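Hypothesis: this fold can be encoded by more than one sequence.
Test: take the structure tokens below, design a sequence, compare later.
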């Protein structure tokens, strides 16, 4: 007989394989709040529910919502062509590369890195990757496919960052702060330098136990690396659910599952959509050297699952076990 999901989850959370935080809310009720492991192994500082974590590609969800807010403000439309927004990119990208196709990973653009590699940024001067423009030489070397099919592309989100800069006249971090982070009241979210010195930020650790410094861009950007916390994500999800950040039509566009991945999973315009445990969950994954994250919320109920880790892979196993737990609980 298989062990219960709760038993397996408890074992994983209390094991050395987990370092991070877990928050599960169901219908407005806190089901699980847990913090384990160390945010800084050298000093012995523990992870707490207030610890800030780098979250890798969870940044794509924030980038997508920022684009949505620019659409709501009348600065652009989802079907606007990238080259019309950022004319300097016209020699490189044609009329089929739009905000919508970039958001949905259906532009035909491949990626500038290999996400399956143990160290995907190996060989890059990560200290110089401090802005979307700095990534452009790598993005322009990304392979191209026929537009219309789903090809996960962090390179596409670098281009979305350049579009946001062109539309707002600001750097990407400043634009995200002014258009989303500050209006949403997210006080622990942003793009601090990931050099181990940022306040209350967990240091990511590689499987060999060494810090991940030097293996990631020093500052996050539109495709990955945003730093946030459980409380900020809970606020972010509540505001999305309540319609305080996006018009309903804009949110529904982002949440539309345009690329089926499996019978229960799809990708929309900047988010994964999971049908599980009797609900539909909208959110994103995040995976980098020394980092794993899985965050999702329901629009039908005040429910959310947030897993932030300063170690690799653990967040995904925890997320799967939480969904199993919710399934088992629903059947009781």
């Amino acid at each position: 007989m298989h062990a219960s999901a709760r038993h397996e989850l408890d074992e994983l959370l209390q094991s050395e394989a987990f370092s991070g935080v877990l928050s599960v809310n169901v219908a407005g009720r806190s089901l699980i709040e847990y913090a384990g492991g160390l945010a800084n192994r050298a000093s012995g500082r523990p992870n707490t529910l207030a610890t800030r974590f780098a979250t890798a590609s969870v940044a794509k969800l924030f980038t997508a919502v920022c684009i949505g807010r620019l659409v709501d403000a009348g600065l652009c439309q989802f079907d606007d062509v990238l080259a019309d927004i950022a004319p300097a990119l016209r020699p490189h990208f044609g009329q089929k590369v739009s905000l919508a196709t970039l958001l949905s990973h259906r532009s035909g653009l491949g990626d500038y890195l290999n996400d399956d590699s143990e160290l995907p940024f190996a060989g890059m001067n990560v200290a110089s990757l401090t802005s979307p423009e700095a990534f452009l030489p790598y993005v322009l070397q990304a392979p191209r496919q026929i537009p219309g099919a789903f090809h996960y592309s962090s390179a596409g989100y670098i281009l979305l960052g350049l579009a946001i800069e062109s539309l707002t006249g600001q750097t990407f971090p400043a634009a995200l702060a002014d258009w989303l982070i500050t209006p949403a009241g997210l006080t622990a979210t942003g793009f601090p330098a990931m050099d181990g010195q940022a306040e209350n930020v967990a240091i990511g650790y590689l499987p060999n136990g060494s810090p991940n410094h030097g293996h990631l861009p020093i500052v996050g950007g539109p495709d990955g690396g945003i730093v946030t916390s459980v409380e900020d994500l809970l606020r972010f999800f509540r505001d999305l659910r309540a319609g305080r950040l996006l018009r309903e039509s804009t949110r529904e566009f982002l949440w539309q599952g345009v690329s089926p991945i499996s019978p229960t999973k799809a990708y929309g315009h900047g988010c994964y959509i999971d049908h599980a445990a009797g609900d539909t969950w909208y959110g994103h994954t995040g995976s980098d050297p020394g980092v794993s994250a899985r965050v999702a919320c329901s629009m039908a109920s005040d429910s959310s699952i947030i897993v932030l880790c300063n170690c690799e892979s653990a967040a995904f196993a925890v997320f799967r076990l939480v969904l199993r737990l919710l399934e088992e609980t629903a059947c009781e």
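The mean pLDDT is 95. The longest strand covers residues 279-288.
Hypothesis status: open.
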